[in-house]
């Protein structure tokens, strides 16, 4: 299992020494064993790092391509494994982009040679559109399947349809002629478990039996979900968005977007939602869509052999995921741009839009909710909002920001406690306990017993003449003429007041349970629980403002626009604004969130209230901490992610961060022509670094280039097999011309072809804010530090993350690969 592999590789070790000894692409070299404990290195670490056949690039300090270096030209045929990356390593964005340019040039140069080459060129050009089309089709189909299955299994907790077992409660009663307007959800075809088992439809015995069966099904679904995740696909748990953000930044997590993860996540997502846990399916749908994008990318060599190009497909897939989650194609594209993508060129924008369009079209064709809409809680409002209402909207924004700040701190504290105590070793038990508590408390309250999406639908819905909910139990004025579309504000009846009390209890329950549910070992999204909390708060505020306007319509704030008998306040609108505010407070999304919510409601008129609430929630949340929940989980898990939103304001220099430190031994380096094959092999065996700077001589320390460990190993092994006379005492030459050697000397080994002649370098006086920007914008793994051309040290991505943690008064050992 992946978690066990992580443990053995050292990623779960808490000590600073163990963490830094875990080999990765960023960990290129260090002082000769003073900082790091190399005793934990494994034999396979010798091949960490990567090389690529036929890669053509050399970079100057500014990053311009000015010449070409052919890697491993001495090899006659490709060696398996060259050009790939090991698990938990960061890709080399610069090299991957140069590989793609070289591939594109090669195809263009051949396309006029024959009709077949022209066909291959056209196929290559269209492969990007084909892969996002397939991703959109698969994402839409899987989302429709998940929606239908989750609705059916959610209703299975309460009863079953005898006439057609595959119908949920609503579908079961569609064809019945015996339903009444007041009790439209009751029909002879639908039987509760109490009716089937003890033959009673009413009474205490019926209530207790339904209660027991509700808990039984909830626990069964939760147990089945966590068991499937634990046994078959440990990566299928959680939301998936923090890991997808990290993967899109260039990190490799093998298996996270694989076929097993896709299959298990799809099945367990249905089970987790049906169990009634305080979670949603919208976040995990992004993970499902990215799995589809990753799998389809392997059908096209353009993407399967290039990690940077593959991430363009994953960006489009994440847009398709949000498109089917909320029925918001434009919001999905903006979500991919604002929240998850690290590298988002214009071509990816168009393909993301197309993938979102295809996914939404497929979902609309399936029509999983039977309402010809893409989401269950689509609503339309007919009453305009008034300037005075901005005040309660802003207050809802403040509540959303406070909720977001509280949730992030509480959830991260609980997740950290789970990691550091024995409780985290029993994920199945934790899920069962949380599911049991949720089911026991949720059943008595009709608003917590509801599926969370149905609860949001009810809270969003405006009270019309056809609504029978207790939230719409207003006292009607018998003298008023009946108006179908525009019902005036009325005094609240007993049903509304009892509903408010139940909603207040539901709000407390949702707040507490969501903190403990997000992060357990089942697929768990955060969008829907956060929106539910905001919708409950918003509906309560909306009813309060509505009653205030009814009883005090002569106040100056109401007098101008709210006359007696007019429909002034729409409580459902307040629920919508509250939902957006709470989701914004947790995720710190702004533009994409507003677009998603107005696509949900189908009206542009309410953009200003949404913008006011979302910006307020972001400002309030940022006052307590600038991290959103996904960034907080990235930091908790110790992923090497440089957040572009995070500002680096300290005045340190490259010399303050580079290694080795002044008290450390010098760097492990190679010389241009003074080392033998045996010297290099000993250096590789004695260290776990993934690369070595090459200098002219120990005395001059003038930088020549940079050689990766894997390139060295493969080149030496290949030379021993294919070139006669290469022995341990053979001189290794990285220079252009081989130095003169005594006649009896063995044949020298020329390795200039594997040398990166112009690695990225900065001077020791370069401000760290510039270095951080270079790493963010170019996706670097390491940067060499020089002074007047003399090599001084190296800065890796891990060094920058440690330095940023130290400047934020955090323990760097606690954040790296926990």
Automatic annotation (TrEMBL):
Q: Please name the SUPFAM superfamilies in this protein's record.
A: CBS-domain pair, Clc chloride channel
Which cellular component terms (GO) are annotated to the entry? early endosome membrane; Golgi apparatus; late endosome membrane; lysosomal membrane; plasma membrane; synaptic vesicle
The residues that cross the membrane are 126-150, 214-236, 256-277, 284-301, 313-337, 386-408, 428-447, 499-520, 532-553, 573-598
The annotated topology with respect to the bilayer is:
Multi-pass membrane protein
Give the molecular function GO annotations.
Answer: ATP binding; chloride:proton antiporter activity; voltage-gated chloride channel activity
Domain CBS, chain residue ranges per copy: 658-722, 755-812
Coiled-coil-forming residues are none
Superkingdom assignment = Eukaryota
Keywords for this protein: Antiport, ATP-binding, CBS domain, Cell membrane, Chloride, Endosome, Glycoprotein, Ion transport, Lysosome, Membrane, Nucleotide-binding, Repeat, Transmembrane, Transmembrane helix, Transport
Q: Where in the cell is it found?
A: Cell membrane; Early endosome membrane; Late endosome membrane; Lysosome membrane
Q: Identify the InterPro entries for this entry.
A: CBS_dom (IPR000644), CBS_dom_sf (IPR046342), Cl-channel_core (IPR014743), ClC (IPR001807), ClC3 (IPR002245)
Q: Name one Pfam family in it.
A: Voltage_CLC
Chain's role: Strongly outwardly rectifying, electrogenic H(+)/Cl(-)exchanger which mediates the exchange of chloride ions against protons. The CLC channel family contains both chloride channels and proton-coupled anion transporters that exchange chloride or another anion for protons. The presence of conserved gating glutamate residues is typical for family members that function as antiporters.
Q: What family does this chain come from, according to its entry?
A: Belongs to the chloride channel (TC 2.A.49) family. ClC-3/CLCN3 subfamily.
The name this protein carries in UniProt is Chloride channel protein
Could you tell me which species this protein originates from?
Aquila chrysaetos chrysaetos
